[in-house]
Design brief:
homodimer, Tetracycline Repressor, domain 2, 9 helices, 0% strand, DNA-binding
DNA sequence: ATGTTACCGTAACGCTTGTTACCGAGTCTC
DNA sequence: GAGACTCGGTAACAAGCGTTACGGTAACAT
């Protein structure tokens, strides 16, 4: 007999996707084991055989969300032809400009709210967010090599907060924050900071 | 006999404060009627006599939170001596720079996550947020009277998203986002947009 | 003084939750 | 082919949830 680890990982990924779906469509209060199982098309038995408890399921889904976004960001960064284009591309995908990224942003807000009650979820968020911040600071420094460190930090923080904030706002009210307004906002900010491509 | 409506309102306010406390300290998942009653120092009987159900309690707390912030913002705006100072003061109090505003931001994120599952909570958020956005657009237009409309909109959106975003980030990781860094971020943005006082 | 009424705590209801125990079906080993 | 083992579904459990019904108490009106 062989417990193929590939299937286990694939099932864990499918269940994490089910966690995202429930979180995005039904909210944090309805994020139950039964709802996740229904979204994944299986029973609660499979869920509880794959994860020791509900918390472990949420933590895995959270970590997988972060890993996925990190890979996407790294691909964008590698594909860019200049530091400023890399910065813009990376920040652009952070906003909520289409149904998929809107869903992601809803899930992100959900995990953020869930982190209030869960120390490990909080730690996860902080680790991921600090890494994300360092990445953007590095990109800003590369896009403006002659800036002093504190200016790099202040501008990077402004850009991070702006994109993360508009993603949350667009997630809660997509009609009021269409994609083109978010793009114009980003371009206006990059232009004001002197970081236009 | 007289059912004094002042006491009723005061009790509703106290219960709403209890809702905020529970939401900030225990998170959305632990926001139960019993937890609210315990935080308010009463029993669930009083809560359910004051509000028809749990949802009404949350909606009232949400609306009261908005009304309170609106009054505070209007006072700041009225006390400012110039349009640019008004803009800066209003944006500054939106961030999470001290324990009180950090708590408010945690509560804000909690309500935002709860709005995913509740249409009325969503509507409330959209109404409040659109009014907030119009206010900032008006302040930006007053601070830069010669700007075209779309530039006013893009800059106002950038400022709103930035302050709201940094408030959420600071709420989740206060140590990484101290008050002075948020202030520097705001000043750097206002300066870059050409809106310094 | 007494009946009435509003107020609010107590206790219970039905329901949903996370979690556990059990059990059948399929699969690999020898 | 028989047996052991893994997988996953079913059903049950206790606990906690929102909500409801009931009872006692205090204040008012007459």
């Amino acid at each position: 007999m062989s417990p193929p680890p590939a299937d286990r990982a694939a099932q864990g990924e499918a269940l994490s996707r089910a966690v995202w779906d429930v979180l995005a469509q039904q909210g944090l209060e309805k994020l139950t084991v039964r709802a996740v199982a229904a979204a994944a098309g299986c029973t609660t038995g499979l869920v509880m055989h794959r994860f020791p408890n509900r918390r472990a399921l949420l933590l895995h889904a959270r970590q997988l969300l972060h890993d996925t976004t990190r890979q996407r960001v790294e691909a964008l960064e590698a594909a860019a032809t200049s530091p400023r284009e890399a910065l813009r591309a990376v920040l652009r995908q952070c906003m909520a400009t289409d149904p998929e990224t809107i869903t992601w942003s809803v899930v992100w807000v959900g995990f953020l709210a869930a982190a209030v009650a869960d120390a490990e979820l909080t730690d996860m968020h902080r680790r991921n967010n600090r890494a994300w911040r360092q990445r953007v600071e590095r990109l800003v420094a590369a896009a403006a090599p002659d800036w002093p460190v504190d200016q790099v930090g202040a501008v990077a923080l402004g850009l991070i907060a702006m994109t993360e904030g508009v993603a949350a706002l667009a997630a809660a009210d997509p009609a009021a924050y269409p994609a083109d307004q978010q793009e114009r906002m980003l371009d206006a900010a990059l232009s004001a900071y002197g970081l236009s491509c």
